[in-house]
Each structure stands twice: as C-alpha cells, then as structure tokens.
Amino acid sequence: MTPAILIFFVLAALAVFGAVSLILQRHPIHSALSLIVVMVALAGLYLLLGSEFVAAVQIIVYGGAIMVLFIFVIMLLNDGEEERTHFSKLATFGGIPLAVAIAGFIAAAIAHSSGDLPAATANGSLTSTKTLSMLIFTDFVYPFELTSFLILVAILGAIVLAQREN
Amino acid sequence: MVPTNYYIILSAILFGLGIVAFVFKRNIITIFMAIELMLNAVNLAFVAFSRALGKPDGEVFVLFVIVVAAAEAAVGLGIIILTARNRRSLNVERVNLLKL
Fold it and tell me: What is the ipTM of this complex?
C-alpha cells in the first residue's frame, strides 16, 4: 500500500465521518462544524490530486466565507435543537430507496467502466495556477464575466430579502 | 497512485449522504447545508476526472461551481432569515402556507 493510497483512505474516512455526523447531529451548529470537517478533508484530497489552486479556494471560500456565513445566520436566529418529529411517509418510502438507487447506479456504472480511466495523478504534476488563469481568461471568459453579473444580482437579492420593511 | 475510481466512489457516497440529509433533516439551515455537501461531492468528481484526463477544464468548472454556491448561499440565507422572521420557526414542517 503506497503512502498516497493511505492518505486517500484517511481523508476519505474523515469526509464520510463528517457527512454522517452532519446527519446525526441534532443541533444545526454541530452540523455546520461537521460540514467544515468534510470541506477540509476534500481540500486535502484536491491537494492529493495535485490541484493546489482549487484546494486553496476550497479552504478560503467554502471553509472560510460560506461556512462563516452559515454560522452567523445560525447564531443570529438563535435556533435550538431540531424538533423530533415523525418522519414523513414520503421520506421513509421515497428517500432511502432513492439514495440507495443513486449510489447503486453510480457504483454499477463505475464497475462497468473500471480500468478505462488512468490513475488520477497519472502525469504526477500539479495543475499550475497559471494554466488555470490562462483558461479562465481565454476559453472561459464569457462564463467568467457572467459569474460577476450573477454575484451582483445575488448581493442585490440578499439585501432586498434581508432588509426590514418600514 | 490512487485509482480514479476511488475518488468517484467517494464522490458517490458523499452525494448519497447529502441526499439522505436533505430528505431527513427538519431544520431548514441543515437542509441547505446538505445541498452544499452535494455540490462538494460533484466538485470532487470534477477534479478527479480533470486530473485523470489531463485537462484542466474540470478545475475551471469547479471554480464556477464554488462561485455559484456562494451566490446561492447569500440569497438562500436571506430567504431563511425572512422565513424565520415571518414563521418564528426554522422547522420546514411549519412552513406550510402553500400546502393544501
């Protein structure tokens, strides 16, 4: 077993543990902290894959900005523990089979195609930030400009939604 | 070297757990966090395929997904604050104004 596989399994176990903990915790703040564990583990996996810029963005934007926003809102609304309610019939009879079916479908697809893809870090090099930025500002320049517009609209929407009506 | 299949299987597991959390949680903020978990699972598949095929396009797409997730979090949390102010509860079963 090579060190890369060992690191992969440690990070994967951490990510799955965080996701299961998100489901089992009853207090939203504990769920938020579990989600941060998942995101940090995924950033480690991106580093293992060799995409350093995506790993940094994952930590800074997801682990930093978005989750801090979540925790601010949880504390602002001062919400307590989740009420224990009877599960709806739709969730029990539709949700679990749906989740199992999707996981099984993906697993079957992977089993059929196993061996077609090369190993994830076959070339063994990092994706340089220069390569990514060249792509963003040449091939993907229109989507890039559209995301700036999207963020502007989102800021305006958030302000309009959250302000008090007088 | 880690096979690409391992990453895709981990991505599928995380996506499934996100679906389970989305269906079973009652708190609207936790449901929102389940959506973020599913987006993260998709990002992992994007990066794994991008590295396996040796093309950085997938990583650019991950950056776009992160931008859209940030915009979604801003608007969604605004809606959640509004809902909590109007209904005095974050339980989704209490938000039943449009229910027959």
Answer: 0.91
